[in-house]
Amino acid sequence: QVQLVESGGGLVQPGGSLRLSCAASRSIFSFNFMAWYRQAPGKERELVATITSGGSTNYADSVKGRFTISRDNAKNTVYLQMNSLKPEDTAVYHCNAHRLGVIQSQDYWGQGTQVTVSS
Q1: Residue 83: which of 24, 30, 12 has the closest Cα?
Q2: Under a CB-based contact definition with an 8 Å cutoff, are residues 46 and 39 in contact?
Q3: Which letter does DSSP use for residue 65 in this model?
Q4: Exposure string (b/e) for 36-51, b if CB count within 10 Å is 16 or more?
Q5: Other CB atoms within 10 A of residue 64 CB
């Protein structure tokens, strides 16, 4: 089991930057990938970015070139650097830890951190 705690959200103007952190209670290396999701009011949850244990990353088209996901295994922390923020980036951002399994896969979620992009 693992507990995930997100931080770093807040209010920022369009074009600004924020860095979100996801602190895990145990080693994140044991998970196949870590991910950031977001959910805006009235919209379904969206996968923003993933990073595998090997460091491979993937991004939603809407954030490519603006967001960067990274991990620090020594600190058990995953980051999401968000640049050139747009109002449509406004959402609650959740950290996710995923472990693949032949019989049973596991997902763990943080409580989320609010990101608001507004002038």
Answers
A1: 12
A2: yes
A3: T
A4: bbbeeeeeeeeebbbb
A5: 10
Give the tokens for residue 97. Answer: 């830890």
Q: What is the mean pLDDT of residues 26-31?
A: 88
Residue 61 DSSP SS3:
coil
| C-alpha distance from residue 79 to each of 1, 105, 118 (Å) | 20, 23, 22
Length of the chain (residues): 119
- C-alpha angle with apex 31: 28 to 32, nearest 5 degrees? 135
> Dihedral (C-alpha) 29, 30, 32, 36: value to the nearest 10 degrees?
-60
pLDDT over 90 at 55, yes or no: yes
3-state secondary structure of 118: coil
Per-residue pLDDT tens digits for 60-113:
999 999 999 999 999 999 999 999 999 999 999 999 999 988 888 999 999 999
